[in-house]
Amino acid sequence: MLAPSAEPVLTIRDLRLGFGTRRHQTEVLHGISLHVRAGEKVALVGESGSGKSVTARLAMGLLQESPRTHAIGSIRFDGIEAISGGREIARRRGNRVAMIFQDPTSALNPTFRIRGQFRDVLRSGDRSIRDDEADRRAEAALAEVSIPDPKRALDSYAFQLSGGMNQRVMIAMALANRPALLMADEPGTALDVTVQAQTLGLMHELTERRGTAVLLISHNLGVVREFADRVYVIYRGRMVEHGTTAQLFRDPRHPYTRALLAAIPKISGGGLPDLPERSPDFDQPMVVHEGCGEPAERRS
Amino acid sequence: MRLRARALASAFVLASPLWLAVPSFAERVLRLDESPIGEIDPAKATDYADTVLMSNIYDTLVYPKAGGPGVEPLLATEWTTDGNSYTFKLKDGVKFHSGNPLTADDVVFSLNRMIAMGQGFSSLFAGRVEKAEAIDPLTVKFTLTEPYAPFLAALVRLPVVDAKTVMANKADGKHGEFGDYGEAWMSSHDAGSGAYKVESQNPQSETVMVKFPDYFLGFAENAPDKVRYRYGLEAPTVRALMSRGEHDIADLWLPPEVIRSLAAEKGIKLDTEAGGSTGEYIKLNTARAPLDDVHCRLALTYAFDYGTTLKILTINGERAQGIPMKGPLPSGLLGYDKDLPDYKQDMDKAKEELAKCKYDPKTSPIDIAWIAEVPARERIALLMQAQFSKLGFPVKVIKTPWALVSEQVTKPETAPHAVEIAVAAVTPDPDSLLYNMYSSKVPPTWMSAEHLKDAKVDELLEAGRTETDQGKRETIYKELNKTLRDLAPAINAYEFTGVYVARDAVAIPKLEDKSKQTLDNFNLVFREMSITE
Amino acid sequence: MNWTSIGKRLGAALVVMIGISMLIFAIARVMPGDPARIALGPNATAEQVAALRAERHLDAPLPVQYFEFLKALSRGDLGKSLYTNRPVTTDIAQFLPATLELCIVSAIVMVLLGLPIGILSAHFRGRMPDHLGRLVALIAVCTPAFVWGVILQLFFGYFWPIFPIEGQLMQSTPVPPHVTGFLLIDTLVAGNGAAFLDALYHLVLPATALAMSGLGQCARLTRSNMIEVYDKPYVEMERAYGFRPFRIATRYAFRPAFIPTLTILGLEFAAMLGNAFLVEKVFGWPGLSRYGVEVIIRKDLDAIVGTVLIIAAAFLIMNILVDILVGVVNPRIRLAAGRG
Amino acid sequence: MSEPGSPVVARRGGSRAVAAFVGNPLSVLGLAIVVVIVLLAVFADFVTPFPDHVGPIGDFAAMSAPPASPYMLGTDAMGRDLFTRIVYGYRLSLIMAVVVLAIATPVGVIVGLVAGYKGGWTDYILMRITDVFLAVPPLVLAMAIMGFLEPTLMNGMLAITAMWWPWYARLVYNVTRAEAQEGYVLAAETVGASTLHILFREILPNCWPSILTKMTLDVGFVILMASSLSFLGLGVQPPTPDLGSMVAEGAKYMPDGWWLSLWPALAILLVVLGFNLVGDGLREAFEAEN
Questions:
Q1: I need a surface site. Which of B32, B313, C104, C274 has the fewest CB within 10 A?
Q2: What are the average pLDDT values for consecutive 10-residue runs of chain A, which has 300 residues?
Q3: Do B462 and B473 touch, CB atoms closer than 8 A?
Q4: How far is it, in rounded angstroms, from Cα B406 to Cα B388?
Q5: CATH code for the structural domain at D7-52+70-289
Q6: Where are the alpha helices (DSSP H) in B75-162?
Q7: How large is the ipTM?
Q8: Omega before C165 cis (within 30°)?
Q9: Does B397 touch chain D (CB under 8 A)?
Q10: C1 vs C262: CA distance, rounded Å
Q11: C171 vs B31: CB contact, 8 Å cut-off?
Q12: pTM (2 decimals)?
């Protein structure tokens, strides 16, 4: 675990998000805050629909373009403010921040070979990169994720490769530009359990080696426990508990977290946990574990 | 509107892309149009466009006489007849476009070809000419099966083709040693001796002709070097091309409104072709109830609104596309009787005649066909519908394409009760008009949509054919004219007087000099025209 | 798409062609009126009519007539047109290129304008350019081709006369020697750049009028397919990896959206062959469609049968070409075929 | 329109569809256009200023008069009020569309149902026949048929119907093929329901939304097709007012008589647009319902 004193790469403060027209909005995030420090691995845990994926996408500036989303609060990433999206955050996508998806096969364009997509990924890091240089780097990146025949993989379409291979390709793409932060949105949930475990291991190893910070979004506490240094628990658009992985698993304090933990299936992975019914207890105020406060606001 | 159109026309010149500003070299091009299609094979030619093509690409022994009825020499220098046979002396030194000299053998070949192919105007000769023979290279003799006065006039419909060229281009066909008589080849090439030769032929869009410099009669000083005869242009297209100065002579079928607005533009003039040989007839089916009763027919002739019809055809104070008729014979043919009264609408007389008719109008529906190709006639058809309905007839108007009308009218059962058809004398002789329309001997065609069977009419028609004395013939045709007026097999609506819209820069002597004007359709002689810029 | 499946498609097309020939032949023969009489013209005698009836087997029962027709067809003989007095095949050979040229240029206009409108609409979904694009597309779809022809002529031929309103070339432009019959190609072969531009200039209004309905349909389809694709995970991935929105719109989202669009574009091209009838009439275009109208009005049997068969064949060939093209564009089909 | 908070309304069937339809201003605009045109057509005798101009002749003193009082849209070459004739043209167009669809839809539906459900040779033969009709551009087929028949209203409708039913056959065929494998159909088969029952009671109801949407759109497209035919001179005969022939006739007087063809042309655009907007709205509404 890195020293908690390292600078945060991502700081979200009091983020609120409404969907809908200007007059008729439904609020889905009710003022959440979180931060990820350089090289740190943070997990954001919650049921589907709790707002965890939306938070990650907002942080990357992916949702703000739509006239039907209205975000307020603050999202600071890599020294810029990204709450209203825009060019600055867009420029950082793919190189300063990257994302890994639930189903790698459907996240790759079925009508283009991997090669072309990989070139464009590399181009988001270096606009002037030549094709042969890009291909060389792509091959190296694929070799790094233990793909046996990188040239052949580059010349394949996603539907010609296995899910595990595609996941490796995704990881290679995600890390190709050496991002400061990697968003992993339920990585590999669509794959079978052993492949999922393998690729998670691979991701862990590579990010560790490069000091890449990770924000892991998951409903799977087993995975979180293996992977993360620190955990946020989110419930219906509100943070309910925040602590180090050790603190949280040893001493879950919020009723919702306790319910989640109680529902962990005995074998790691394996589908959705059997979650409890909604309970008024879950609306209790947020619990923050010792030494886990949000960093002080700093004008820069 | 007019002002704006002109301003816009000049705007067009400015807006016209540079690459189109091709400098025009000294070539004089004459551009005119007609409805499709343009047939250049003399054995198939029948229509308006075809006639113009024939007059310019080919030559005939005789040509319709300028300034009056009858014919004048063209390829023939002189002729003799004994009533039963005709002998022609040919002009020496006439050359075909191929360079071959034109001889009596070519004349014989042309006649045989036309009769053998059995299309076009072959009916003018088939069965009437017993034989044609070349007496010597410049003398040709026709022997008829019986005395036939209109034969000489019919020769304006026998273009002479170059036998050697045709035979050199024959394909396999049903005419024995003559193969297909060059039918396939002749649909896109010419074998003529006329002042212009065909450069390219597309029957649906245009025939391009160029001057034949060796033509035996020579050319006007500024005669066109090239002629583009285009087919099937829509009225607004012609109108736009004319006002942009991109067209020289418009076809005859523009609606009066369009002619009127064109006439008001600068650099555009109107010329009337009043050859007096085309009648616009509302042909009444005399073999079908209720019009098999002469009184019902007479009722319709009185109910017809002649005044409004002429008003519809009027272009301006001095020009109209029609003039009143006094009987079935138009004004330019032998037998026309200027002393007969004009037709006039008279509803009282119409009702009087209707009372004498054995049919009850209420239960006697009347079908009026309107030939789709001529839009101006819609108005007249609709006008008739309105007037005849006033007499109590249930009236239906059906827009029918010409091809279908020409087929329907051949049977009394299917022929409409009334259909407006323009019939032109195809030769400068009244026989070519009236015999085909009213003789009960002729198999039914579109010309005889009336299906008239009348002994007295038949008798007069035969007399007119066999009589060779012009004075006696005139008396016969005058009587025939009067008889037909009383029998009312058709409403003689008006005499067609075509109005050409032309650019000022183009002089058309045959139209502009009354003494040179000849039979309708034979006036567009390109070599006599001049284009001055 | 491999040879076997192309062969299968051709086989099916042949079955359909035979069906069409039977259908059109039957319709043509049951119509009222005597084709021989119409053929020979008003001045023919009864004997001539009877002779022609015998020559063309018009008195034989329908199946025999059909058999004779097929026999002639196998020799490449479609009979004789009464309208032009020439063999129907000669007419088709002369008039078809002008129609195909018009349709192909229209198809290009349709794609070049329809796709961008659809892409822009989808890209700006729910915003002003989208509303505008949808409205334009809808109006384009709802207006018959002849109305476009008349309106374009009125506005750009008369009120603001910047385009020619009829024909294929200016009268002063020399017609290039006949090589392919396609003026755009023949002018280039003749090395006459000015004539090429003139031919292109004359195509502007008719091709636009003809393209409109397909253009609208193309824009609508592209839009809806693009919107569907925009919701796919791979587009989100591409955005998350910083691909330029323009590049996503024109490349990554476009290609998958274009595959279903392409299938329909084939149909739209076929519809153009039909609508060409209207446009050629308005613009005096000397093509097969105008010929078709004339022969239909004149009940010119052989010519009608020939024209309809050729247009149906063009339609079927077009559809097969589109299938092949879809196979080329869609790697799934291409690779599957390669393996099979 | 249903209020979000009123459960009574919300529970009633189709309310979500109604809300989706009414919520789209374009659909409402389309409906307004359609309603106005239908009302005009139905009450043509009362709303047109010169109802007798529907006949052969009008005012010979005002032939081809430009738009001005009392002829607000101008007159045609026979001196007839264009507005009057356009309204009667609408009446004719709507009658044609309704009759064509009333024949084409059942024919197509039955062919599609039978072919889709029976399969085998029935399927093959019926669908190849359908293909034959679909393989000729619709306008060309209708023209060819019209060319052989007398140009009357009845024949015009016949020609258009002949080329219209295959589209319904195709549509219903595809739905039937999918539905025939569904559990409820198999269930009905096992309890021994008759084929007729299965076709019309079990499968057909599932096709209705698509059929209805298509029919609405097609009212516009039948009018478009009919006007195209009459533009080519293969439609209804004068003096019956017909929008397509009005454009064709008027086009002969361009550009001086621009009103002669421009108004009828816009009239066609308006009616087709109206039915298209309603059809699109219906489709979205049915989608919202599911």
A1: C104
A2: 67 91 84 92 89 91 86 91 88 91 90 93 90 94 92 93 92 92 87 85 90 91 89 92 92 90 59 62 86 70
A3: no
A4: 24
A5: 1.10.3720.10
A6: 104-117, 151-154
A7: 0.77
A8: no
A9: yes
A10: 15
A11: yes
A12: 0.80
